[in-house]
Write a structure and sequence with these properties.
By secondary structure, the chain is mainly β. It has one domain: Immunoglobulin-like, CATH 2.60.40.2020. The protein has 1 helix and 8 strands. It has one helix spanning about 1-25, and strands at about 45-50, 55-60, 65-70, 75-85, 90-95, 110-115, 120-130, 140-149. A 4-stranded mixed beta sheet has the order 1-3-6-5, with no helix packed on it. Strands 2-8-7-4 form a 4-stranded mixed beta sheet, with no helix packed on it. It is globular and about 40 Å long.
Length: about 150
């Protein structure tokens, strides 16, 4: 009988230790909520990687400018990989060097897209930073939800 009681006590202690270990684990960090990006009255709304995940509001006469940092020596570039047709028309990317006097092969800078509204609606944008023609997962991703009013 004492052996059974000892086994029950050991099992209870083990369960308590496991429960405490589970409860003491790292809590998931909450995802920061990005504010809505809008610039009423301005000709353009500019967003960067730091605003990834944000909702963007545009008027039909406004332009969205997306500026994403590029490291010139790593061989990677930003690509617009998700843009459903009908709401925005994209031009770009255009590369703008950070430092003059360097070549586009060795200079860091900004990849810049200009997106102009063609109709009211909502569209998701997804940009991925990777080596061209590489199927490996993107090193960085930038997403924006754009609503044209």
């Amino acid at each position: 009988m004492n052996a059974v009681m000892g086994m029950r006590s050991a099992a209870s202690a083990l369960m308590l230790v496991l429960l405490c270990a589970c409860a003491a684990g790292d809590k998931p960090t909450p995802v920061p909520v990005q504010p809505v990006v809008k610039a009423a009255g301005n000709r353009a709304v500019v967003v960067t990687l730091e605003q990834s995940g944000a909702e963007v509001e545009l008027g039909l006469g406004q332009e969205l400018v997306v500026r994403l940092a590029v490291e010139g020596t790593d061989g990677r570039e930003w690509s617009l990989v998700d843009l459903a047709p009908g709401v925005l028309n994209a031009t770009g990317p255009k590369f703008e060097r950070d430092l003059l006097g360097t070549t586009t092969n060795d200079a860091s800078g900004q990849a810049i897209w200009h997106l102009k509204p063609s109709a009211a609606g909502t569209v998701a944008l997804r940009f991925e930073y990777r080596r061209p023609r590489n199927v490996a997962p993107a090193v960085q991703v930038a997403t924006f939800t754009v609503t044209v009013r």
